[in-house]
Amino acid sequence: EITKEQRTLMKVIVDAYSTHQIPQDVAKKLLQEQYSADENFLLLTEMATSQVQVLVEFTKNIPGFLSLDREDQIALLKGSAVEAMFLRSAQVFSRKMPSGQTEVLEERIRKSGISEEFIIPMFNFYKSIVSLHMVQEEQALLTTITILTPDRPYVKDQQAVERIQETMLELLRKLCVLQRPQEPQYFARLLGRLTELRTLSHYHAEMLTSWRTNDHKFTPLLCEIWDVQ
Ligand SMILES: O=C(O)c1ccc2nc(N3C[C@H]4CCC[C@@H](C3)[C@@H]4OCc3c(-c4c(Cl)cccc4Cl)noc3C3CC3)sc2c1
Fold first, then answer.
1. What's the CA-to-centroid distance between 68 and ligand 1, angstroms?
2. DSSP secondary-structure letter at 21?
3. Would you say the CB of residue 81 lies under 6 angstroms from ligand 1?
4. Phi then psi for 217, rounded to 5 degrees?
5. pLDDT at residue 229, rounded to an integer
6. Which residues in 56-168 belong to E strands, given as ranges?
7. How confident is the model over 52-109, as pLDDT tens digits?
8. Global ipTM
9. Would you tell me the crossing angle of helices 37-60 and 70-94 to the nearest 10 degrees?
């Protein structure tokens, strides 16, 4: 059964998740700006930068995160940013935007200088997330669990991270059992997505390198979070 404090924890996380979103004027640009590989890259850069800011604000609201060692907080954010952004943007593909933003976003990603070998696993992942039909509680918790992965590079006190992550895993497990009594494997399937995210994270590092060799510029925030330039 879900305890009272688990319900409170759930509410804090879901409220933070729904509060911190990409500003609509940024998201709307998807539909407005010109189409060219360079324009698409610039727009994706702007959106990724905005998404990182949203991610940092969300992370600060995860109960217990701010009590971690400061350097570990940075290490967790840097290590999970790409994965959290994949999860977050997967929701865009899940909710079939009325204004066709989904198709436009897909088109701009496909035409932004990313090589086909990364595009295929990327959109397979998006499809696999959409097919899970996650509710917002599951999306918010799965993103939280990804951020609180103890074995990111340079994390010193992995135990402290593990303790918070375990609380979130237990809550997500209970939620899955309650939401989908007829699908006992659903919780395991959600966690399986996190494994796929790690693979995408490696592909992403190569995407960055290939963009850089084609002299693409990133914003200071993206350079900092992804250790580029
Ligand atoms: O809430 C909405 O309405 C909404 C609409 C569109 C939208 N697009 C979003 N994106 C677009 C892009 C794809 C998903 C993650 C990033 C944010 C953004 O990342 C682009 C990106 C990525 C990236 C890609 Cl292409 C796919 C998945 C994850 C990442 Cl980080 N890597 O580098 C870059 C920049 C070019 C430097 S969030 C969002 C919210």
1. 28
2. -
3. no
4. -100, 145
5. 81
6. none
7. 999 999 999 999 999 999 999 999 999 999 999 999 999 888 876 677 788 889 999 9
8. 0.97
9. 120
Tell me the pLDDT tens digit for each residue of 192-208. Answer: 999 999 999 999 999 99
Find the 106 Cα to ligand 1 centroid distance in Å.
Answer: 10
Pair 76, 152: CB distance under 8 Å: yes
Return the CA Rg of the chain: 18
CA–CA distance, 16 with 54 (Å, rounded to integer): 10
The DSSP output letter for 69 is -
* pLDDT tier, 214 (very low <50, low <70, confident <90, very high otherwise): confident
pTM of the model: 0.95
Determine which residue's CA is closest to atom 5 belonging to ligand 1. 27
Q: Tell me what the pLDDT averaged over the chain comes to.
A: 94
Neighbours of 35 (CB within 10 A): 11
Is the minimum distance from the CB of 85 to ligand 1 under 6 angstroms?
yes
**Could you report how far apart the first and last alpha carbons of the chain are, in Å?**
49
- Please give the Cα distance from 155 to 5 (Å, whole number): 28
CA-closest residue to ligand 1 atom 16: 48
